[in-house]
Amino acid sequence: MIQDLSYGFLDNQYRHLLPQEDDLVVCVQGNRLLFRRNEDNTLALPTVKQVEGWRGNWEYWLDEPYRYVFTLQERRFFLWLGKAEQPAEEAFFFMGTREVREPESKDLCFGAMTAWHLYCWYRDNRFCGRCATPTEHDESERALVCPQCGRRIYPRILPAVIVAVTWRNETQDVSKILLTKYSPKTGHAFPYYALVAGFTEIGETLEGTVRREVFEETGLRVKNIRYYKSQPWSVVDDLLMGFFCEADTEAMQAENAAQNASEAILDANGDPVIHLDENELRTGVWLTPEEMTLQPDAYSLTNEMMLLFKAGRIHSPDDLPLDLTRPDIEELEQQFYGNRSFDQSVKL
Ligand SMILES: [Zn+2]
User: Does the global pTM surpass 0.85?
Assistant: First the structure.
């Protein structure tokens, strides 16, 4: 996954630092981030020195144009807190936040996405939501404060779940996983298989989100819900939490009986019948490890969970917890992706 950093760890302790020439800067225009193409064709973020040349024309807000965000691979990341312009030099270009997963380096992708998450929080909290006074930086922790009413505003993270629903098909003597594709109605252009996913609502447990999202999107009841792992997913301010669970056909039968419904629980193949929410999804299918295809990159928690199913490491929630180390996961990624997904030669 992208937060599995290849060189160092993410140091996100809050500090009030001033930018130095070689520090990296994340500059934003709309929902696009500024990158540069190196002479060897690798991708990078611009440095403070490079940005300073154009800075005269750029607008910024809050009391300082730069804000230190974190250190990754021993490189310090700063945000440009304002509007960025297209630089004249050809090597620089803006790239949409959804395309940021194209970069060759997981570290660069993770750094850019995480800085973007913080940028959005700064941008959207320039004024106090309670009394509309312009906010100010707090220098002791990552917070914005309202000088008028004293309100403190902290970075916002939205909890969401990723759910792998499994099914043991006794007729065919095979394990299957429920895979979905987004409906074009959601405006989500991702064309590959994914898992059921959704945001946690106020007042809900994570397990409650798992049950509700699976039911809303596919009409299925689930049991044996087990936590696997989490992933920050900054493109949409998320913290994703991955769960495995299995289809609960007995619960569905009991519901049918209670409502005097005669609808079939299993289809002709012996798999639980899916009632798709077509506003959210265009596809929902039960697939075996051999039939399923993975996403084209190994960046997401969704894909890692799919990979574990395909590789036979998890065929039901009972296989958890897994005693897998990061090298074990990397070995699986190597097996399915070759060197493509984690090019260790790319430095920040
Ligand atoms: Zn206020």
Answer: yes
